[in-house]
Design brief:
By secondary structure, the chain is an alpha+beta fold. The chain is 50% helix and 14% strand.
Length: 237
Amino acid sequence: DSKMKPGHTVQFTGLKGAAHLNGTEGTLVRFHKADQRWAVRCEADQNIVKARPENLVLRKYEPEPRERHRRRRPGGDGPTEGSVMAAGRGADCKEEYYLRTLVALGRQAEVANKRGRGSNAQELVAEAVEAFVDKGEMDGDAGERFVKHLHRRTREEEARGNRTGAEIMGFIDSVLVTKIMDRLARQGPKDSRVTLPQWLRGSLAGGMKFIETMDSEGAHTARVAASEITRIVDERE
């Protein structure tokens, strides 16, 4: 398919030798002319596989220019263009675009931490979440759609055994609650009580469950327990 480009997200279909990949997604890396196959990075385990174009369905979302955001480089003296925006390209909806950029930022920062480059993963992710909130991208129905999408994707990553992805998403969820409450407080009268939107109650309940469970049962068990209580509250609301 001439419309397919490196960086686009695709869904596997019709595979026989690797039928377990059918229905899952990956990111196009490069096209090998010699065997007429795409190299695709699988979303589930980050492995590279080759597939014919006819076994790939394009799932693409290109953000509008206004959706670009800037972030500060650790130790820098001013804002610089964030390289993580490219990670969101290929998403099939705006909510997934936002989520991918945030998760990619968290992964990049964690790698930098391990290499001793002084990047603080949590601060960078929190800053990016704050940028989305301050732009009004999480106001009203848009915020509700993103939060519900985030909760669903967190459970999917847990089901796949992708603990790192689920942990990053859980952190995004907890930061989001704080940043949205801060925004609501700034918008309302001084010293007035902030009323949490109904669609954020699942996030708040999940965060409280995580804190309750982590010390006694560990981070992974706490993350799964938090996701379950989030699902229950979401369905109730």
